[in-house]
Write a structure and sequence with these properties.
Helices cover about 75% and strands about 0% of the residues. The chain is built from three helices and no strands. The longest helix has 29 residues. It is flat. The chain is mostly helical.
Length: about 70
């Protein structure tokens, strides 16, 4: 994903950068949705625990930029 997005540099390629980023995000969501369905259909899961773990995973992803500022 990063390789495809970061190949565009400079102000002239901003539109291509944004489009590559959006395509990557859509692909990520489609893959995540498909794997979510596969997990629900083919594995005997505790639904409550599965949803709590999924929500915690998303929460960490969203909060990480605010918690870790970097060097």
């Amino acid at each position: 994903f990063a390789w495809r997005v970061l190949r565009f540099r400079g102000a002239r390629q901003a539109r291509q950068f944004a489009m590559a980023f959006m395509v990557g995000e859509v692909a990520k969501l489609v893959i995540m949705g498909a794997l979510f369905v596969v997990a629900l259909l083919f594995f005997d899961l505790n639904m409550k625990a599965f949803m709590i773990a999924f929500a915690m995973n998303l929460g960490v992803f969203w909060l990480a930029p605010f918690i870790y500022r970097g060097p």
